[in-house]
UniProtKB/TrEMBL annotation:
Organism: Jilunia laotingensis
Cellular component GO terms, alphabetical: cytosol
Pathway per the UniProt entry: Carbohydrate metabolism; galactose metabolism
PANTHER family found in the cross-reference section: UDP-GLUCOSE 4-EPIMERASE (PTHR43725:SF47)
Catalyses which reaction(s): UDP-alpha-D-glucose = UDP-alpha-D-galactose
Annotated NAD(P)-binding domain residues: 6-329
Coiled-coil segments: none
Keyword NAD set for record: yes
Signal sequence range: none
Domain of life of the native organism: Bacteria
SUPFAM superfamilies (UniProt xref): NAD(P)-binding Rossmann-fold domains (SSF51735)
This protein's name: UDP-glucose 4-epimerase
A GO term for molecular function: UDP-glucose 4-epimerase activity
Length: 344
C-alpha cells in the first residue's frame, strides 16, 4: 500500500510540481483545489508528466463539511501538504478580509479535521515574508519574526502561530513549516508552470508575458533601494527544487524523524539577485530582449532578502541544484508552450 498524501491547492503552481515529485517518489496523492487560481486540466498534465493520475476533488478549504467528506472518501491519509491560499501581496493590501478568511479558516478547518481522521502530520507552505526586512542577511531560521508588511505576510505569521498553538495544546499532530523564498521557473517538460488567472501579480509570469508580447511593458518597482543597482533583491528558487523539499518533509514526518513537533526550514538558494540582474539573466539565457521601465516603489515590498539554507542543507538533506539560467529558460519554454496550446 502506498502512503496517501492530501495536497490542498494541488493544481496550483507549486502544488502541481509537488504532486509530480510525490508520485515519482511512490506516494498516492489526493488533490483538493477550488480552482480559483488554476485550471482542472492541470490534472491531465500532471498525469502526462508522471504517468499517474492523482485523485482530484473540487473542494474549497473553507467548506468544512466538504473537507470532512474528502477525508471520509479517502481513509488512511498519512499527512497533508497545505498550499491552498490567496497569495498576492498587492491584492492583500486592497482586500485584507478576503485574505484573512481564505488563509486562516482553511488551515483551522484542516487542523480540526486531522485528529478526527487520524492524520498525523502537516507540511505548511510558509514564506520568507514572515521575516519582514531582516536585520541580518542571509536570513537564518532563528531570525526574529517582524511585523508583516502586508496582510498576506501576516496570514503566514498567524498560520504558523495557529499550528504551534494547536500542537502545544496537545493535538496529536507534527508539523514542518517550509519558509520559501521566491519560487520561479517551470517543469522541464514545459507541461507545468505558473499560469495565474488574469494579470500576473508575480514577477516572472509578467516578465515572460511581456517577452512574448501579451503585456506591453514590465514595470520595475523602484531603483532607489539600498542595493548595488537600486532594485529589490530576492532569493529566486527553482520550483522543482522547491517541490522536492516537500517530498523530503513528508518522508521525515511519516518516518517520525523530526527532532521537534514543529520544525522550520528556509527553502532558498542562499544567493540574492536583484530584479535588474534577473532581467539581464533572462535576456542572456533566452536571447529575448525585454521592454521594461523603472517606476515608483510598490507598497509592501521588502528591500532585500535571501536565505541562509544551511539548516535545510544539513539537517534536511535538501539543496537547490538548478541554475538561474536553466530556471529562466524553463519559464520561457513554458510561456512558448502556452502559446502553442492557444492559451493567452
Amino acid at each position: 500500500m502506498k502512503d496517501r498524501i492530501l495536497v490542498t491547492g494541488g493544481t496550483g503552481y507549486i502544488g502541481s510540481h509537488t504532486v509530480v515529485e510525490l508520485q515519482n517518489s511512490g506516494y498516492e496523492v489526493i488533490i483538493i483545489d477550488n480552482l480559483s487560481n488554476s485550471n482542472a486540466d492541470v490534472v491531465d498534465n500532471i498525469e502526462k508528466v508522471s504517468g499517474i493520475r492523482p485523485a482530484f476533488e473540487k473542494v474549497d478549504c473553507l467548506d468544512f463539511a466538504g473537507l470532512d467528506a474528502v477525508f471520509n472518501k479517502y481513509p488512511g491519509i498519512k499527512a497533508i501538504i497545505h498550499f491552498a491560499a490567496s497569495k498576492a501581496v498587492g491584492e492583500s493590501v486592497k482586500k485584507p478580509l478576503l485574505y484573512y478568511r481564505n488563509n486562516l479558516v482553511s488551515l483551522i478547518n484542516l487542523l480540526e479535521l486531522m485528529p478526527k481522521h487520524n492524520v498525523g502530520g502537516i507540511v505548511f507552505s510558509s514564506s520568507c515574508t514572515v521575516y519582514g526586512q531582516p536585520d541580518e542577511l542571509p536570513v537564518t531560521e532563528q531570525a526574529p519574526i517582524k511585523k508583516a508588511e502586508s496582510p498576506y505576510g501576516n496570514t503566514k505569521q498567524i498560520n504558523e502561530e495557529i499550528i504551534r498553538d494547536t500542537i502545544a495544546s496537545g493535538a496529536p499532530i507534527n508539523a514542518i513549516l517550509l519558509r520559501y523564498f521566491n519560487p520561479i521557473g517551470a517543469h522541464p517538460s514545459a507541461l507545468l508552470g505558473e499560469l495565474p488567472n488574469g494579470v500576473p501579480q508575480n514577477l516572472i509570469p509578467f516578465l515572460t508575458q511581456t517577452a512574448i508580447g501579451i503585456r506591453e511593458q514590465l514595470s520595475v518597482f523602484g531603483d532607489d533601494y539600498n542595493t548595488p543597482d537600486g532594485s529589490c533583491i530576492r532569493d529566486y528558487i527553482n520550483v522543482v527544487d522547491l517541490a522536492k523539499a516537500h517530498v523530503i518533509a513528508i518522508k521525515r514526518i511519516i518516518e517520525q524523524k523530526q527532532k521537534e513537533k514543529v520544525e522550520v526550514f528556509n527553502i532558498g538558494t542562499g544567493r540574492g539577485l536583484s530584479v535588474l540582474e534577473l532581467i539581464n539573466a533572462f535576456e542572456k539565457a533566452t536571447g529575448v530582449k525585454l521592454n521594461y521601465k523603472i517606476v515608483g516603489r510598490r507598497a509592501g515590498d521588502i528591500e532585500k532578502v535571501w536565505a541562509n539554507p544551511e539548516h535545510a542543507n544539513k539537517e534536511f538533506g535538501w539543496k537547490a541544484v538548478e541554475s538561474i539560467e536553466d530556471t529562466l529558460r524553463s519559464a520561457w519554454n513554458w510561456q512558448l508552450k502556452l502559446r502553442e496550446r492557444g492559451i493567452q
